[in-house]
Amino acid sequence: MQRTLIKDAFKKTNTVFLKGWVHETRDLKKVRFLILKDKSGRIQVTGIDGKTNPETFELLDNLNRESVVQVTGALKKCEQAPSGEELIPDSIEIIAEAKNPLPIDASDYSKTELPLRLDNRFLDLHSVRTQAIFKIQSTIGAEFLNYFIKKGFTYAHPPSIISASSEGGTELFKAKYFEKEVFLAQSPQLYKQMIACSMENMVTITPVWRAEKHNTTRHLNECRQMDIEMAFTDSKTVLEEMGKAIQHIVKQVIEKNAEELEVLKLKLKIPKTKYLTFTETKKLLEENGVKILENDLTGEAEKKLNELFPNTITFVTDWPMKGKPFYIMPKNEDPNAELSEGFDAIYKGMEISSGGQRIHIPELLEKRLEANDLNPKDFTPYIDSFRFGAPPHAGWSIGIERFTQVLLEMSNIREVCMFPRDRDRIMP
Ligand code: AMO
């Protein structure tokens, strides 16, 4: 017999064959219940003393939570069952028993703390709340790609092994590569630029690594970035694209993940967008009693922006050159400008993205590398790529975990990373 998913079983009148996990069991002596779950939902399986065959009735009292079982039986109306129907089992078989006690509570009422849940993430992934987070994250990633692929962007795959830094030398993980020393990519930055300078518009989701030593609730040492890069364009155009892409993603999450949002007790609204220059932001924050750094916003400043502009993605543009990486174009392509064509995007009190127009002029790029204490020689193929017909181009990157954290209002980014890597965690 073919396996039926639980959600489809409710439509059937004949015998069905289900496979799934034991969510919970209850023994009322004369009646025994099993709540069976699979990826599509849950169903109540009811055994009745004297009616259900004795072997099956006995087994209903001996099932460990999270064991994998298969059940055959027929549906019957039952007003007390959560779905209005229950399954009367003909047979139950254990496919894979879960050892008891479980190392964590994966039930709907689990109070297990995050570190222990992460130590046992394989089991934490059985919980409906954790599954809800990753089903939403699946929509975020898929809709990000969909949005840009539909617009004709090329879905490209930059390398993860690199020979020189793109985001600053201190955050690199070194690795041995035959007789050479290499680094794990901090960003697809240099490659997405080369792709944009030939294929025009590109999109990617790719893992990146940052060797930042500090443990925070918003940083991981391995995260995944959703990046775009566009040729023949400027920072304003790519910002507008970000606003529309995020609005599309949030709309899709609202439509496709209604059940998951209910599990997480969240009501989402499609965000508005707002544009402020760095100078305007600084002034506004100071008027509201929040000081910011010369070249950067603080966490407190990001929170204040959310208070001032709730449910809004605030694009802070015209960022000071000193606060941006070497590849960001000076304002109006003026080599002496103090401000840049770089920006950050702040949403629900946190930075979710940065980007800007890039330097496509080799001589200026060399100057900027030197100004950032980097050796242009280490970037020869990258600089050279702009000597053979490189159009002006711009792009940005949104961390998928950071975006999920912000959207789902989670206090710790590790909640929204399936298998987080931080200073202390590389297992499981
Ligand atoms: P940036 O370094 O600002 O820019 O990163 C872009 C976005 O990636 C996410 N992110 C992180 N998420 C979790 N843990 C981290 N350690 C971490 N680091 C970054 C954030 C951040 O806003 N190449 C440029 C982007 C560009 O100009 O296109 C870059 O990587 O959401």
Tell me what the structure shows:
There is one protein chain. This protein is an alpha+beta fold and 428 residues long. The chain folds into 2 domains: 6-96, Nucleic acid-binding proteins (OB fold (Dihydrolipoamide Acetyltransferase, E2P), Beta Barrel); 124-416, BirA Bifunctional Protein, domain 2. It has 13 helices and 16 strands. It has helices at residues 6-9, 54-59, 114-119, 121-124, 128-150, 189-199, 235-256, 258-263, 278-287, 299-308, 362-371, 380-384, 400-407, and strands spanning 16-27, 31-38, 41-48, 68-77, 85-96, 154-155, 161-162, 174-177, 180-184, 202-209, 222-231, 272-277, 312-317, 342-347, 350-357, 393-399. The strands form 3 sheets. Strands 6-10-11-16-15-14-13-12 form an 8-stranded mixed sheet, with helices on both faces. The protein has a 5-stranded mixed β-barrel with strand order 1-2-3-5-4. Strands 7-9-8 form a 3-stranded antiparallel sheet, with no helix packed on it. The longest helix has 23 residues, at 128-150. The radius of gyration is 26 Å and the shape is elongated. Residues 167, 187, 189, 210, 212, 219-220, 223, 225, 227, 351-356, 395-399, 401-402 line the site of aspartyl-adenosine-5'-monophosphate (AMO). Residues 167, 187, 189, 210, 212, 219-220, 223, 225, 227, 351-356, 395-399, 401-402 line the site of aspartyl-adenosine-5'-monophosphate.
Task: Indicate the topology.
Layout: H1 6-9, E1 16-27, E2 31-38, E3 41-48, H2 54-59, E4 68-77, E5 85-96, H3 114-119, H4 121-124, H5 128-150, E6 154-155, E7 161-162, E8 174-177, E9 180-184, H6 189-199, E10 202-209, E11 222-231, H7 235-256, H8 258-263, E12 272-277, H9 278-287, H10 299-308, E13 312-317, E14 342-347, E15 350-357, H11 362-371, H12 380-384, E16 393-399, H13 400-407
Parallel strand pairs: 3-5, 6-10, 12-13
Antiparallel strand pairs: 1-2, 1-4, 2-3, 4-5, 7-9, 8-9, 10-11, 11-16, 13-14, 14-15, 15-16
This protein binds aspartyl-adenosine-5'-monophosphate.
The site of aspartyl-adenosine-5'-monophosphate has 23 residues, from strand 11, strand 15, strand 16 and helix 13.
